[in-house]
Amino acid sequence: MFSKTRLIPVLCLCICILLAGCTKDEKKPTEQPTEPVTPTEVLSPTPTPEPESVVEHMTLKDRYKDVFKIGVAVSNTTMHNKEYMDVVKEQFNSFTFENEMKPDSLLNRTACQKGLPDTDTEPVLQFIGIQNGLTIAKQNGMGVRGHTLCWYSQTPRWFFTKDYTDSGELCDRETMLKRLESYIKQVMEFCQTEYPGVIYAWDVVNEAVDIGSGDSDGIRKEKNNWYATIGPDFIDYAFAFARKYSDGTAKLYYNDYNCYDKMASIVRVLKSVQEAGNIDGIGMQCHLGTMDSMRDRAYKAAKYFTSNGYCVQITELDIGSKTRAEGIEKLQAIRYKELFYYVEQGVKAGEINLDSITVWGLYDEASWRTGENPLLYKRSVGKLTKKPAWYGAMQDPAIEIPLN
Ligand code: GLA
């Protein structure tokens, strides 16, 4: 039997022999963290590091460079943040202003009011909110989606009233047609003159089809001041004006949500616009969920629009989940991979005429779908971090998707 005092030198010797026998690649004690460790850290087994993904050092824009553009929605705040913009420039070759190019941002109410009666049919606009972003795009060779010229939402009521006040009387059809024309003319001409070639697609009309409570043709009536003042043909006029003032460098799009649910109605509503030659494509927003089938929601609708003679873009992609169940990030990654897989295959097979996919936001915390974490990046330990969803969008071979 050894006494306690004899046991200690024997144990030391054993440890020395073991250490000397370590191969070069094994973790040596000196590689252990030097900071104090908590008891739980000591007890838990060292996690096996995940093998590095084969797509880790690639970027979204390089991955899809021969197939379609990859875009992201950005706000002015994002655009002033170097960390974010480094990622935007590295990963994407297109962006959409999240809000800054919408009528409520571009219209200058005070100047419209002050300038009456001259401004009655010539509203005054301000472009200060989009200049920085368009300059970044121009300097970095990025494309921009022009979003959006004519929309029932984010277009203030005062724009439709005789005296440009919230509570004023709505204008007549002729006045509103002139305001619509002037608005479209000014926005397009500003962008085309100051930033030639930067905008490659205009969402001329956004969300005008509402099969639930629209008119007999499915055109949105509710809270729609364009419908109230001009009538259902505001869509035809908006596209006619956009075609008239376009320098031909950008395609003209109709953009809507839940396209998979209302694709036949959309095609029907746009028939006269298409026959007049005033539209090029349909933008599918694609605000989707982790329980959705990407094949049904994105691929089928894109194929349908293509077969009806339209170009297609996915314009506002996000795939969210209301639950925070375990494994939800993995499921989300599978869904992103499915979407990119089916769309890419469809494009390569010539079944889908699609040239751009835009994700609606850079990181979860800045998403409009609060709590649903629908995007490719998140903020983690104060830094922008790739989520499994990013690897899904890259079609990482390590992520398995159900094929049908
Ligand atoms: C719609 C619009 C977008 C944006 C989202 C919500 O999809 O087209 O511009 O406002 O709603 O953020």
Descriptive overview:
With 404 residues, the chain is of the alpha/beta class. The protein has one domain (57-393): TIM Barrel, CATH 3.20.20.80. It has 16 helices and eleven strands. The strands form two sheets. An eight-stranded parallel beta barrel has the order 1-2-3-4-5-6-8-9, surrounded by five helices. Helix 9 (173-194) links the parallel strand 3 and strand 4 (199-206). Helix 12 (259-269) packs parallel to helix 14 and helix 14 (294-307) packs parallel to helix 15 (328-348). The chain is globular and about 75 Å long. It binds alpha-D-galactopyranose. Alpha-D-galactopyranose binds at residues 206, 257, 285, 316, 368. Alpha-D-galactopyranose (GLA) binds at residues 206, 257, 285, 316, 368.
